[in-house]
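Predict fold of BTB domain-containing protein; 266 aa.
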Amino acid sequence: MSNELSCKGSPTSSASVRASLVTDESHFSLVSLNSSVSQDEFFRCRDHSDVVLKRMQDYLQSEKLCDVVLIAGVDGRRIPAHRLVLSASSAYFSAMFTGQLRESQQEEITLQEVSGDALNSLIQYCYTGAIEIREDTVETLLATACLLQLSTIVGACCNFLARQLHPSNCLGFSLFAEQQGCTALLKLATAYTCQHFQQVWKNQEFFMLDAAQLANLLRSDDLNVPNEQEVFHALMAWIQYDAEGRKRHIPELLALIKLPLLQPSV
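Predicted 3D structure, encoded as tokens:
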């Protein structure tokens, strides 16, 4: 009973009690910080990069803080952008803006032989990480991506084209890939051409090859044919397509045919 009375009858005011609690809590916090168990914390915002990219995209759309204008040489389209974003996305722009090239000091830069639509799509990709690849624009997009050294887009375009391979277009894809330096697509298209040679040589693209291109094809040991007669017939068909202009190539091309494997009836 005395304990209860002493507690209730304590002369300590409620304000002093609160002060004591604060003092105790402060003391407790100091003790915790000085304890042997660290209370440090490493914080990471998972959405930070997405939020920053979205803000940069908003700046692009509103043309705020833009410090360079890219001009497409084909049609003159003008596209404002930010050097920092372009340099972070493209090795081509990184070399242009961080090196000693005169473009690093220019506010307007013309990219020759580049179309406005392809350039705009690739600039948008630098800010969003997303791009639409369509059958009617993929070759232009790939050529521009190769120029800007956007390797992820080059790979995506090559994969897209690889899925479109057909005996009627594989030779064209091979030539295009060679021109653009797309080794992955070139390898796929060449392998497809060899595998489907019996169908390939009956399509228009085959007859449009020049002598050097045909020689490279006939020189391959990977042609999927039932016999050497198939290769011989393909060569003869190519020559007859323009006999007057191509007959001078007969000796060099005929040397690529494995004549001992031909049947006597040929």
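The longest helix spans residues 14-33.
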